[in-house]
Amino acid sequence: MSNIGISPKGNKFKPLLFAGDINVYSVARAFHEAYGVISTVYGKYPTGPCMNSKIIDYRPNEKADEPEEFYRLVCEFAAENKDVSVILMGCGDSYVELAARFKPQLPANVIAPYISDELMNTLINKEKFYEFCERVGVDYPDTFVHRKEMGKFFKLPFDGPFIIKPASGIEYWKHPYPTQKKVYKVDTLDELQSVLSDIYGSGYEESVIIQNFIPGDDSYMRVLTSYSDRNGKVVMMCLGHVLLEEHTPHGIGNHAVILTECDRQLMEKYRVLLEEMGYTGWSNFDIKFDSRDGKFKAFEINTRQGRSNYYVTGSGANVADYVVRDRLDEEDMELRLVDVDSLWMVVPHKVAYDYVNPKYTAVMKKLVSEGKVCNPLYYDPDDSLKKKYAVTRNVMGHFVKYKKYLGKK
After folding, report:
1. Are 220 and 169 a contacting pair, CB within 8 Å?
2. Are 70 and 112 in contact (CB under 8 A)?
3. What pLDDT score does 1 carry?
């Protein structure tokens, strides 16, 4: 293992990543797989999959997501490694927002593969993102935007059940409260009013998105991950068919099992969307199939690689390699639509077989038998006993979580 990576064209670099969860571990693993390089990672707490890792130099810092400290850490690392390029990647919304904000004033040897602060602030607001979708014909759920000053005096143009979520996730999580969830699903207007009262009562001031619930279990979901090069050209798209999500209050919507698929017509719509907005870097879309009208509808865009990004690397499109070849080597790449059979999962196989829609059991078992399955947290070169114990404990904990929130199987 090395502390310095060498690009295909011989350029030296070091990865500097921010966060402490499965997202950042997956990116660090991608860097190690492609270039044998150890990533330096700053996260807030001395816990999670980055702890006791042999492929990560993990540095806990409770203030890492505060603007001044984030900027100081990046500048300090760049100065310590002034003879190589530093590839800066955020693996959580707050870190990505900070990287975009400070991008114009970062040291010359720092590469931050992100869009402008202005465009990012536009896209992370779901209300404004839907305006982009409207322009280019990307479908999204029937939506009503609620603002705090409306109070209880509003009329919805659709019936329940309803999905409720903050327009700005970054602002939302700055105001914790006891019943806080990532997304709410309610059946009645009274329940909706109660959720709105809790959200605004926490101190959150941005708008709230209320949508008509699209019927269907987890297997109606899709995740699309794309990479747009420095010129705004989409050069890679990988579509995942979500078979199972997490169902804990804070984890609801997080992917647990993904089957790689290729829908060229769907991908083309999102390619046009990304190139119309002049997007660069990694993007990630949450999409759901609406059986009522046969349309795939976008929920949101993440202006980064998603939490489940290793489904892309595991399908043969290494997420670190694209950044290095594009931003460091300035290689011109042709569009690749990933079309392989691959299964990504972060739960035990039995949990997947028990809780995924039975129509997909056979294909999952086939891919498992063929060895076309991956869990990003299990990586042979990263064989620390402490880490293996922590990962196994976490993975096995899904038996309890799914039984609690979805019932015994």
Report:
1. no
2. no
3. 65
Distance CA 108, CA 89 (A): 16
Beta-bridge partner residues of 50:
none
Over residues 350-404, the pLDDT tens digits come to 999 999 999 999 999 999 999 999 999 999 999 888 888 888 998 899 999 999 9
**363 exposure class (CB count in 10 Å sphere: 0-12, 13-18, 19+):** middle
Q: Which residues of the chain have pLDDT under 50?
A: none
Question: Tokens for 288?
Answer: 């759901």
Give, in order, the Cα–Cα distances in Å from 117 to each of 259, 260, 303.
33, 31, 11
N residues, the chain = 409
Please give the structure tokens belonging to residue 249. 């209050």
Question: Can you tell me the distance from the alpha carbon of 31 to that of 193, in angstroms, rounded to the nearest whole number?
Answer: 46
290, burial (CB in 10 Å: exposed 0-12, middle 13-18, buried 19+): middle
Interatomic CA distance for residues 234 and 386, integer angstroms: 40
**DSSP conformation class of 327:** I
For residue 44, give the DSSP letter: S
pLDDT of residue 105: 96
Give the per-residue pLDDT at 32.
Answer: 98
Q: What is the CA radius of gyration of the chain?
A: 21
